[in-house]
UniProtKB/TrEMBL annotation:
Residues 132-158 are annotated as: Disordered. Gene3D superfamilies: Ribonuclease Inhibitor (3.80.10.10). The gene is Lrrc46. It comes from the Eukaryota. The keyword Lipoprotein does not apply. It comes from Picathartes gymnocephalus (White-necked rockfowl). Pfam families: LRR_4 (PF12799). This is LRC46 protein. It is found in: Cell projection, Cilium.
């Protein structure tokens, strides 16, 4: 059985696995429903198997033991990446998705490289914020009219609230596909019930309009 510690309905768009003493990201089935993944404060040493989350928009790996940025090219929609307080010595900007708008590498040795900030900004044309500091004059800001027209929905996508994800045990992902399938079945059943209820309403309305059936 699923061992999640969820409060309320299971949210299918976010997973929270922080502070679970996880040492690696396993090879998982494709989980296209997941948009936000929280893995901070674990013991993860390598960024791997993230292609299981092709629609990921928010990824937090802060406070781990990661030494290099890699295997992110399979995440074309990634908007926010938090890699703060890891062990990244040298940053390879070619490994960063061009879709990034918020990037945090605070606390990594690579931030002390000469020209670090200019290098990152030049590599990421849509970046709005680096290490909690705003970026000015980039493509994303120009497209948004200097940032004045940013919507609340866009902000929520870039920085999802911590109350949205749910806490789970490490073995949760084994049962996640089954949970999602169950939710899909429940949605179909509810839709059918609503449809049958609507048909009954229509029959009652028809009876009122046409009067009693003549035998």
């Amino acid at each position: 059985p699923c061992s999640c510690r969820s409060m309320g309905p299971l949210p299918t768009s976010s997973i929270r696995l922080d502070r679970e003493n996880i040492s690696s990201i396993g090879n998982l089935p494709r989980l296209a429903e997941i948009h936000s993944l929280y893995l901070q404060q674990n013991r993860i040493e390598k960024m791997e198997n993230l292609d299981s989350f092709p629609n990921l928009r928010f990824l937090c790996l802060a406070g781990n033991c990661i030494q290099r940025v890699e295997n992110l090219q399979a995440l074309p929609h990634l908007s926010t990446l938090d890699l703060s307080h890891n062990l990244i010595q040298v940053l390879d900007t070619e490994e960063l998705p061009r879709s990034l708008r918020i990037l945090d590498l605070t606390g990594n040795p690579c931030t002390r490289q000469e020209g670090y900030r200019d290098l990152v900004v030049a590599a990421l044309p849509h970046l709005l914020q680096l290490d909690s500091q705003p970026i000015h004059g980039n493509t994303a800001e120009e497209e948004a009219g200097g940032g004045s027209s940013s919507s609340e929905e866009e902000d929520e996508e870039l920085l999802p609230e911590l109350r949205i994800p749910f806490s789970v045990d490490r073995d949760f992902l084994v049962d996640l596909p089954r949970e999602l399938a169950g939710r899909a079945r429940r949605r179909r059943r509810k839709a059918l019930e609503e449809h049958l209820a609507r048909l009954e309403e229509l029959r009652e309305l028809r009876a009122l309009v046409l009067g009693p059936a003549r035998g």
